[in-house]
């Protein structure tokens, strides 16, 4: 089924940087697209970024474009989110999510849905 | 783009049915069939319950069903059980790689 474990969260001052990691196990990581999604405690979810299974395409939400960068290392089964120029409004729990598998398809997953999620890592931006 | 609109809370008694609405626009919900619903238990990660409007991943009870009409998607939970008490989020593709989520609905089983 698969498991995802995020790490790297913490407290950082405005303008600072953090790099989040998401370690994958139990599935062929290099066959799946991956997302980052965040959630302000007690609030809704917000899509942050996506990376194609081979890392050749990435997409970022407008709210983080130019500040955050999604990447992956398939040799380490790990997804990353480099966060620079952090703002108070970036304070949230950050989840990584695996795209829903679509067996038999040319690209064997669906961009639009996430069927495996990690438990999240908390980022707090505060002076 | 703004988040999709969901009621803040719904409630029902065990055995009853409830429906949660998710209202968007002609640029998101009304324009795509890439609608999904996630269940989030307290302190847990979201869980995919419905995708592509009305499909259930393996392991999700058939008490959960989805539909769409115009710019509004809906999640129906039939035969409510205590374990269904959770937050539910809708999600729609909005074009240009954007995934839009709703603000979430707290389901209380009375």
Strand and helix order of chain A: EEEEEEEEEEE
* General form of chain B: globular
Report Rg of chain B. Answer: 13 Å
Strand content of chain A: over 45%
Roughly what is the average pLDDT of chain A, rounded to an integer? 95
Could you say which structural class the secondary elements and strand pairing of chain B correspond to? mainly beta
Radius of gyration of chain A: 14 Å
User: Terminal Cα separation of chain B, in Å?
Assistant: 35 Å
Tertiary shape of chain A: elongated
- Report the mean per-residue pLDDT of chain B as an integer: 95
Write down the oligomeric state: heterodimer
H/E order of the elements of chain B?
EEEEEEEEE
Largest sheet of chain B: 6 strands, mixed
Query: Most extensive interface: pair and counts?
Result: A-B, 23 and 23 residues
Low-confidence stretches of chain A: none
Helices of chain A, by number, come to 0
Task: Please summarize the sheet with the most strands of chain A.
Answer: 7 strands, mixed
Structural class of chain A: mainly beta
- How large a portion of the residues of chain B is in β-strands, by DSSP E? 35-45%
